[in-house]
Amino acid sequence: MESESEVDDRFAPAIDGHVHLMPDRLMRAIRDALTAEAGWSFVHPTDKEAMEAALSAAGVERYLALPYAHRPDMAADLNEWVLGRAAESEMAVPFATVHGDDDVADVVEAAFAAGARGLKFQCPVQECGPTDPRLDPAFELAAKYDRPILFHAGTAPHFEDSPHVGVEQFETFLDSYPDVRAACAHMGAFETDAFLALARDHENAFLDTSFVTSTAASEYVGSTVGIEDDAFETLSESIFYGSDYPNIPYPYAAERAGLLDRELSTATLRDLFGRTAERFLGER
Ligand SMILES: [Zn+2]
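# zinc ion complex -> structure
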């Protein structure tokens, strides 16, 4: 694996489509939960300056800054915090979130008006997913303002029993909101093949690679997600690189190494590491 300090021009300039930027107290709570549930330990910084220095040193030019709200009445402040950090950043592309029990339309409308570029839902943790009728106002505003949505809609790493995830729900969303660009994090793991099939059939369906294509994936999510190189080649306009940084229990370089180690064409790597995220954001 390349060292953290060496910038690989097959990777840079990259967009990291899955980074968590949240206040320290919240990050600590999330990490404590992951440590308790999965035994993971974390070495990466959580403050914006140190995170951006590390991402930038790796060759990342911009990143999607993703919050999520695990309970009601916190999303509005959280969104405002993320937007504030992004305003003083050259790298952060701010996303917003909302909880199903919030005044959904108000929270989302305010976030979009203040510059949020899309929405993020950590469905199993937030206990509201792509078919939750409480979120319809958010989805309608995403369509109206042409803002994409990133869902953690897959069953990995330990959400097989959650009623808020799964490929059927994601497909229902795509059919209900055909104009909204929607991504499923972690390539839809553990239902990756079914999510890849959806990406083949729906122009507005996207997948991010976070966690599951890293060289460390099999160690942390059990069975290796066996994605063929051909899937990246044929769906490169629907799959974008993401990392889940800084909440990953392994070096940041492992995320890109898992893709760079494959036999992928230069054009496919440019899609994965930048162009497809731009398409998801509506920039191309
Ligand atoms: Zn994440």
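# post-check
DSSP finds twelve helices and eight strands in the chain.
The chain has a mean pLDDT of 94.
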